[in-house]
Fold:
Amino acid sequence: MDPRALADKTVDFAVDMWGLAVAIWELVTRRQCFIGISMPELLDFHRRGEWKIPPLEGNDFIADFIQACSATPRFRRTSAQLLELINLEAKQV
Structure:
């Protein structure tokens, strides 16, 4: 879950997109995104602006997709925008 939701106790579309970014990152890397980090530490990272999902190398499209899902909430893409990105990528393949 987006640490912002835990800190602010707000759940909205942006929280879902952040969760999607983490799930995709974990599926692609076959690792846990925040292993060894306690909830208080994660919230502290959030407060300091250091709670980014680790960078992903090797597939620019997936890395860009994860970035689009995990950007600062006001800059996160909507599901319609993400679907458009997927469709554009599919046309290029």
The mean pLDDT is 81. The CA atoms of residues 1 and 19 lie 5 Å apart.
